[in-house]
Amino acid sequence: MISYIRGELAAVEAQKAVVDVGGVGYGIYMSQQALSLLPQPGNEVKLHTYLNVKEDAMQLFGFLTRDDLEIFKLVIGVSGIGPKGGLNILSCMSPDELRFAIMSGDAKAISAAPGIGKKTAEKLILELRDKVDIETVLDHAAHGAGEETFVPEAESGMQAEAVQALVALGYGSAESLRAVRKTSLDCATVEDILKEALQYLF
After folding, report:
1. Once rounded to an integer, what is the mean pLDDT over residues 61-75?
2. Pairing mode, if any, of strands 24-29 and 58-63?
3. Contact criterion met (CB below 8 Å) for 183 and 156
4. Which phi and psi (to 5°) does residue 194 adopt?
5. Within a 10 A sphere around the Cβ of 69, how many other Cβ atoms?
6. SS3 190
7. What angle (nearest 5°) sits at the alpha carbon of residue 89, between those of residues 45 and 135?
8. Around 159, how many Cα atoms within 13 Å sit in the side-chain half-sphere?
9. Which residues, including other chains, have CB under 8 Å from residue 64's CB and lie 6 or more apart?
10. Which of 16, 51, 87, 196 is the most buried (most CB within 10 A)?
11. Hey, CA dihedral for 76, 80, 86, 92, is it positive or negative?
């Protein structure tokens, strides 16, 4: 098992990155979102990888963080979704947006990915709903940008309630999550969070 690859980014192609490690170029398939975040060729990169072995091929799939890799492995563990399908989903939404779509039962958002139909999206939601939680999403929002901001557990719970309230009001799961992420840490109640979040939604 190849856990990660570190080397010089040699090229970025339509669906994959080529990483030079000791004179050997590894072609690593990545989501479009991840490819867009790579540095310019010539820079060093470290990609967490998943090796897919088939009868006629061995394919490497790469991810910028271990968290991205873990959500990918959860997705391809669902019957009917292969590695390419998993990448298609992560090309359309971030791992945290996917988690919230699963929690809120938003099959429409997931089925927007190429090759993922409504029934497959509903099956993914059914099988993974118990494996993701809103606190994880909000914790990533607080720490994902490399900031050392601590979100108390009680506050995280209020944010979760606010997101769920916005979805109940008819807003999309992804846009609700993004709006709540933008609210100030000074918000003392769920109502305060909702008031600020709604300003970003209007």
Report:
1. 92
2. parallel
3. no
4. -65, -40
5. 20
6. helix
7. 80
8. 28
9. 34, 37, 47, 48
10. 87
11. negative
| CA separation for the pair 116, 95 (Å, rounded) | 16
**DSSP string of 117-173?**
-HHHHHHHHHHHGGG--HHHHHHHHHHTTS------HHHHHHHHHHHHHHHHTT--H
Q: Is the pLDDT of residue 131 over 50?
A: yes
CA distance 199 to 191: 13
What's at 24, amino acid-wise? V
Per-residue tokens: 123: 């099956």
In whole angstroms, what separates CA 13 from the centre of its chain? 21
pTM assigned to the model: 0.69
Please say if the pLDDT value at position 153 is more than 70. no
Separation of first and last alpha carbons in the chain:
48
DSSP character string of 84-123: HHHHHHHHHS-HHHHHHHHHHT-HHHHTTSTT--HHHHHH
Enter the tokens of residue 146.
Answer: 């490399």
Give the C-alpha separation, 120 to 156, whole Å.
Answer: 31
Q: Which amino acid is at 43?
A: N
- Taking residue 123's Cβ as centre, other Cβ atoms within 10 Å add up to 16
